[in-house]
């Protein structure tokens, strides 16, 4: 229903967050994706997450590559600057944007074609550099805009809508992110808002490279029997390792937890991640064990979801580069240009 | 016996060495010593794509007249590489000199009758004085430096001072080096006579500096306010990024906290490099990458995005021999067309064409103002000759009153005051729209940047009329660029003439000399050095004002000429190609021979000079 202009009107009783914004203030234009697309649920989860963490909408920059998923930044956060870049290259553009102004929140939205095929290299290097960003891959295992070709995350043996069996091994971006040094790795399902919203909140407040793989079924080309990215398949095989609540700043803990079942992770920005264990032996702060666990469960056909890994001591690219605290794009000419006296000295050394 | 070449402060010395043998530092000292004696020098490295073992040459032109291009020819060959012996000997001008290591006897057939052969038992001298292999390797170079000091009349005190400066940070090495120099000097003095090529102290260097273009461009980027550099190593541009790293370490740290006022990322490839640059430019930082032709090929898609989405960015392209991997360590001006029209669809980009390290600095800084002002990609086109060789140039200058021009950036105040913000709206008639940076205002001025067609308010649109309007505006913006880029430099001949010559970049020093030589022979040519693309109208006025215009450049396909024909609708018959593209820098002898030939003066020698 893309011809409809979204009405600005909203019900006066709509609740507001601490900054006085309603949920509607975080919305974008009307989606042009297919009705029922998983990606629209993710956009809604992003809206909800930004509303709940009391984000000033204009303090976020949203960047994407090319593809169905990469169109979505137009469908949330209209008050934010957005950049629909080049296929597979969102990570480098976001890296540059982040270097220019470290004070903003950066959200990168990508797809499995964008990040696991053409952009696999850029995905990898953004993770290993620790670019401070939330990186969401809306993963449907298929090229939607070009009508149904397999993507690199399609599982070996899964069937396309036309009945072709995929003979290539699927790329698991979660496993890669863990190996590459991402300091926050999660997986979720577009159909599980209760799990997805807190994960996005935590990723947005995390310092460093935060990656979320969101299985997001393609209603048009990959929701059939034989697909391992269909709504039914993902629901049946989804195994959450934990449940996450994100507590902002000094907000009081109101939920009561069973003793021994809870792990608290303090983040740099003052927020706390409250992790309730579901899988009893799962420790989300142990990278090596997380990698092993995921491999084991994947081998028996489970899709493991939840906050899979978080490094409480995470650092980002700016820490590594020791850049000034003020944004580089705000430095004055006097701070950047050394002047003629310094140049005279340089000249003298070149004689 | 041919008459020996006799010359004071005006000759060419070529060192033939083995890569990785430590010769570069001795050869560098040789050049510095001549400069310190107040004599102008041009020096060029001719090196292989290799770290150790392959042949490398260093060609030094001592020029009392101050001509700093390659002259062509060799008066003294310092032949230190048996691998290239035969071609090195063949290259010496008749009446010239050969300096070689005479430790092993050589048959007469290995030499030439028409040159003067000067042998020094270098290996024997070195092995007698030193036992450790590492010392033998390095100090052998200093021994030949000592011998040449005597043979060419270089003041030994000057060399000693330079050795002391060179090893100031490792003072223990100074006496050993001075000793090695004396071994060579004394042996030559005892056994040989000074050559007919002599150096005499002069006062022709003044306050000039000796620096390569990559270093100069890097310094320009510092002065131009660049804060983000993303790059991927590629010869011959690598030293530009390294220069930026070095200067930033010295000049760009917060004096109180020590924190960096810059961010440099060595990216995974050229595509990521330019992506980072575009992201930083979008977010209001001055950003650049440096690369060479193969890198520009990889960056095509992003260059189109920068053009169409109107994002400031700077690429320093240090050109080398193409196509493909081509000649990585040889010079050419062969990326002009691929840079001017880079990317798919209808695109045109601003190119700045510095003539040497001086303009590398100047344009290196100016490129960032132009990128911000025009909101587009700016190319600064260096080449290996100016990028990696040290040139003798006037000192860098900077006006402290200069303010960085950030162009049309709409502020929160302007939005608050009710400005009608349309990201791609031509408000001022110059084709340049206003932009906002992310997070400018809580509720106004946000827009969605895309490489897809959109209306003046940045709303997605594939409507034909909307697309065409935008493309026409981009042309108006390119028209505006003509008045902002560096203007061409005109040099009129002493008399009215029907002949003109257009040239650019590192051809400049050879052209200066060629023009003077032609003038002295009574051949008048008006010369125009273009310094940027798009070409301002005066370039086409110049062409219209002459019957025949030579276009001198260093590529096979006459790329600048093609650009002139295409952009100015010039009759191709009026533009004569003069092309040097064998990978070595163009020489004055080549230019003057080709121009004289084209002007009907047939008695001129030295055509085919390019083959050297």
Tally the helices of chain B.
Answer: 20
The level 1 CATH classification of chain A is Alpha Beta
What profile does the largest beta sheet of chain A have?
Answer: 8 strands, mixed
Order of helices and strands of chain A: HEHEHEHHEEEHEHEHEEEEHEHHH
- Work out the strand percent of chain A: 15-25%
The number of domains of chain B: 4
Helix/strand-derived category of chain A reads alpha/beta
Describe the structure.
- The complex is a heterodimer of chains A (351) and B (612).
- The longest helix of chain A has 15 residues.
- Helices cover 30% and strands 19% of the residues of chain A.
- With 351 residues, chain A is α/β, with parallel strands linked by helices.
- The model of chain A has no long low-confidence stretch (mean pLDDT 93).
- Chain A has twelve helices and 13 strands.
- In chain A, helix 2 links the parallel strand 1 and strand 2.
- In chain A, helix 1 crosses helix 7 and helix 3 runs parallel beside helix 5.
- Chain A has a single domain, classed as Thiamin diphosphate (ThDP)-binding fold, Pyr/PP domains (Rossmann fold, 3-Layer(aba) Sandwich), CATH 3.40.50.
- Chain B is an alpha/beta fold and 612 residues long.
- Chain B folds into four domains: 192 residues, Pyruvate-ferredoxin oxidoreductase, PFOR, domain III (Pyruvate-ferredoxin Oxidoreductase, domain 3, 3-Layer(aba) Sandwich), CATH 3.40.920.10; 183 residues, Thiamin diphosphate (ThDP)-binding fold, Pyr/PP domains (Rossmann fold, 3-Layer(aba) Sandwich), CATH 3.40.50.970; 73 residues, no CATH class; 123 residues, Rossmann fold, CATH 3.40.50.920.
- In chain B, strands 11-10-12-13-15-14-21 form a seven-stranded mixed β-sheet, sandwiched between helices.
- In chain B, helix 5 runs antiparallel to helix 6 and helix 17 crosses helix 20.
- Chain B is globular, with a radius of gyration of 27 Å.
- Classes of the chains: A alpha/beta (351), B alpha/beta (612).
- At the A-B interface, strand 2, helix 3, helix 5, helix 10 and helix 11 of A face strand 9, helix 7, strand 11, helix 9 and helix 11 of B.
- Strand 2 of chain A pairs parallel with strand 17 of chain B, so a sheet runs across the interface.
């Amino acid at each position: 229903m893309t011809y409809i202009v979204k009405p600005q009107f909203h019900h006066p009783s709509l609740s507001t967050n601490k900054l006085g914004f309603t949920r509607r203030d975080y919305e974008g234009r009307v989606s042009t994706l297919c009705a029922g697309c998983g990606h629209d649920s993710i956009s809604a989860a992003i809206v909800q997450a930004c509303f709940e963490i009391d984000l000033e909408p204009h303090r976020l920059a949203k960047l994407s590559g090319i593809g169905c998923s990469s169109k979505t930044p137009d469908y949330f956060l209209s008050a934010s600057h957005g950049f629909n870049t080049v296929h597979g290259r969102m990570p480098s553009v976001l890296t540059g944007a982040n270097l220019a102004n470290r004070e903003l929140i950066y959200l990168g939205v990508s797809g499995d074609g964008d990040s696991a095929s053409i952009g696999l290299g850029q995905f990898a290097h953004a993770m290993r550099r620790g670019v401070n960003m939330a990186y969401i891959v809306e993963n449907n295992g298929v090229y939607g805009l070009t009508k149904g070709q397999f993507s690199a995350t399609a599982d070996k043996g899964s069937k396309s809508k036309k009945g072709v069996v995929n003979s290539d091994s699927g790329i698991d971006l979660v496993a890669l992110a863990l190996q590459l040094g991402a300091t926050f790795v999660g997986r979720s399902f577009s159909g599980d808002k209760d799990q997805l919203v807190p994960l996005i909140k935590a990723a947005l407040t995390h310092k460093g490279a935060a990656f979320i793989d969101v299985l997001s079924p393609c209603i048009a080309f990959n929701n059939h029997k034989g697909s391992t990215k269909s709504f039914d398949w993902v629901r049946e095989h989804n195994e959450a390792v934990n449940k996450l609540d994100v507590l902002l700043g000094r907000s009081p803990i109101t939920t009561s937890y069973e003793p021994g079942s809870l792990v608290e992770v303090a983040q740099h920005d003052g927020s706390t991640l409250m992790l309730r264990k579901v899988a009893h032996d799962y420790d989300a702060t142990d990278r090596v064990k997380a990698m092993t666990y995921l491999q084991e469960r994947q081998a028996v056909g489970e899709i493991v979801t939840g906050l899979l890994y978080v490094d409480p001591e995470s650092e980002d690219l700016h820490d590594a580069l020791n850049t000034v605290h003020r944004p580089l794009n705000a430095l004055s000419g006097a701070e950047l240009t050394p002047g003629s006296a310094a140049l005279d000295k340089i000249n003298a050394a070149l004689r | 016996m041919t008459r020996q070449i006799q010359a004071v402060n005006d000759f060419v010395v070529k060192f033939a060495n083995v890569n990785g043998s430590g010769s570069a530092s001795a050869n560098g000292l040789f050049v510095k010593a001549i400069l310190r004696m107040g004599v102008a020098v041009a020096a060029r490295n001719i090196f292989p794509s290799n770290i150790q073992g392959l042949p490398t040459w260093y060609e030094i032109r001592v020029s009392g007249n101050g001509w700093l291009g390659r002259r062509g020819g060799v008066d003294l060959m310092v032949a230190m590489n048996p691998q290239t012996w035969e071609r090195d000997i063949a290259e010496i001008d008749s009446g010239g000199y050969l300096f070689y290591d005479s430790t092993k006897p050589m048959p007469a057939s290995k030499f030439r009758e028409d040159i003067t052969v000067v042998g020094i038992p270098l290996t024997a001298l070195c092995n007698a004085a030193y036992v450790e292999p590492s010392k033998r390797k390095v100090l052998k170079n200093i021994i030949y430096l000592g011998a040449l000091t005597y043979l060419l009349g270089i003041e030994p005190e000057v060399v000693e001072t330079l050795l002391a400066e060179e090893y100031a940070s490792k003072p223990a090495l100074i006496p050993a080096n001075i000793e090695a120099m004396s071994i060579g000097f004394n042996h030559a003095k005892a056994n040989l006579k000074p050559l007919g090529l002599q150096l005499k102290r002069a006062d022709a260097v003044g306050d000039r500096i000796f620096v390569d273009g990559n270093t100069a461009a890097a310094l320009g980027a510092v002065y131009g306010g660049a804060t983000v550099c993303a790059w991927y190593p590629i010869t011959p541009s690598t030293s530009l990024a390294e220069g930026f790293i070095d200067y930033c370490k010295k000049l760009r740290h917060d004096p109180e906290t020590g924190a960096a006022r810059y961010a440099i990322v060595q990216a995974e490839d050229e595509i990521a490099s330019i992506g980072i640059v575009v992201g930083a430019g979008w977010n209001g930082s001055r950003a650049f990458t440096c690369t060479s032709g193969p890198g520009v090929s990889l960056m095509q898609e992003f260059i189109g995005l920068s053009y169409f989405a109107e994002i400031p960015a700077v690429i320093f392209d240090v050109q080398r021999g193409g196509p493909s991997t081509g000649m990585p360590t040889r010079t050419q001006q062969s990326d002009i067309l691929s840079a001017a029209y880079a990317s798919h669809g209808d695109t045109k980009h601003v190119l700045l064409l510095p003539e040497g390290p001086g303009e590398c600095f100047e344009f290196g800084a100016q490129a960032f103002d132009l990128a911000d002002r025009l909101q587009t990609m700016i190319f600064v086109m260096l080449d290996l000759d100016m990028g990696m060789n040290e040139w003798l140039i006037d000192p860098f200058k900077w006006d402290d009153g200069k303010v960085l021009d950030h162009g049309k950036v709409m502020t929160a105040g302007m939005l608050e005051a009710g400005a009608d913000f349309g990201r791609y709206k031509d408000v001022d008639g110059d084709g340049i729209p206003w932009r906002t940076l992310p997070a400018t205002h809580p509720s106004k001025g946000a827009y969605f940047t895309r490489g897809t067609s959109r209306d003046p308010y940045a709303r997605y649109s594939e409507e034909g009329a909307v697309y065409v309007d935008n493309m026409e505006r981009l042309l108006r913006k390119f028209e505006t660029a003509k008045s902002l880029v560096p203007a061409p430099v005109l040099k009129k001949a002493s008399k009215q003439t029907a002949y003109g010559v257009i040239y650019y970049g590192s051809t400049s020093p050879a052209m200066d000399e060629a023009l003077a030589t032609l003038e002295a022979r009574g051949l008048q040519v008006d010369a125009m050095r273009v310094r940027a693309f798009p070409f301002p109208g005066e370039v086409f006025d110049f062409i219209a004002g002459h019957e025949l215009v030579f276009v001198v450049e260093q590529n096979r396909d006459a790329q600048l000429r093609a650009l002139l024909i295409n952009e100015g609708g010039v009759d191709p018959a009026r533009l004569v190609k003069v092309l040097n593209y064998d990978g070595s820098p163009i020489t004055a002898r080549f230019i003057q021979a080709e121009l004289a030939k084209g002007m009907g003066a047939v008695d001129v020698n030295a055509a085919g000079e390019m083959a050297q």
